[in-house]
Amino acid sequence: MTQRDAATGLDWSPSKLIRIENGSVGITPVDLRALLGLYGVTDNDRIESLVEMARASRRSGWGEYKDVLSREFLIYLENEASASAIRQTEPLLVPGLLQTEEYGRALLRSGTIGRDNAAFVDRAWEVRLSRQEILEQTDRPEMVFILDEAAIRRQVGGAGVMRRQLEYLRALARDGRAEIAAIPFSAGAHQGMRGPFTILEFAEPEDDPVLYFENSLGDTINRDDTELTSQYLTTFLELQELAVSGPAFEDMIDRAVAEMTGAIEVSVPRPVSSTT
């Protein structure tokens, strides 16, 4: 099987497979399982052994992606991997941990002005895909995401892409891998409209929480100002009170999906900050 055959079989770009094979990037367990399936490897012990090797190889850090990630976000990723709780609010976008590939790539393409788009999007998506392995862990952290209805209504990538993204959010919320809620438009103005933020908490009492911001001026990570982090945690809990979850969240998703069914798919790229 040629590299092109393998890339085509997995709907990858040939450059992605080449970078994996020449060792310039690591391979995620998800991608490894896909390759093993394509190559006809069926022995479960062999598969799990290789997957564990892939996991171990990635524990050395995220430094290989410093060409597409900010220094602050690299620090954030190291902390995210060991967090016992992840609390994130996002008024405009579906968070990276919850994105489908087609939604994520559409979002990344919209914010890559002045870059080699294809190469940047491939590598940035590799980061998100690696992060999303946390959703499959049996010992995964508590994960709570609060969106605004605007993030659900905005048709990133077109109506079809957005419908599938919303259906994925509904599935994640329903199977309990993550707690997802959304603040409806009817709630009016709220503090979450000021911008997204993420709070990471840790199992060890001596480990202070991490507060992370992302905006058009750059990324900011804070672990020293515990009073500020406490203020934002209070804000998060207040936003949680405004948000709908469970059946009410699913109803919001269903209404949005129904309205997008049959819509003309038009994708209009616009610059966005969308690391997390």
Summarize this structure briefly.
InterPro entries: Cro/C1-type_HTH (IPR001387), DUF5753 (IPR043917). The chain is of the alpha/beta class.
Structure write-up:
The chain is α/β, with parallel strands linked by helices. The chain folds into 2 domains: 1-60, no CATH class; 65-260, Endonuclease, Chain A. Helices cover 47% and strands 12% of the residues. It has helices at residues 3-10, 14-21, 29-38, 44-58, 71-80, 101-110, 117-131, 149-153, 159-175, 226-242, 246-260; strands at residues 85-90, 142-148, 179-183, 197-201, 210-215, 218-222. A 6-stranded mixed β-sheet has the order 3-2-1-4-5-6, with helices on both faces. The longest helix is centred in the middle third of the chain and has 17 residues, at 159-175. The chain is globular. The two termini are 36 Å apart.
Features:
alpha/beta, DUF5753, 11 helices, six-stranded mixed β-sheet, 6 strands, 276 residues, globular, Endonuclease, Chain A
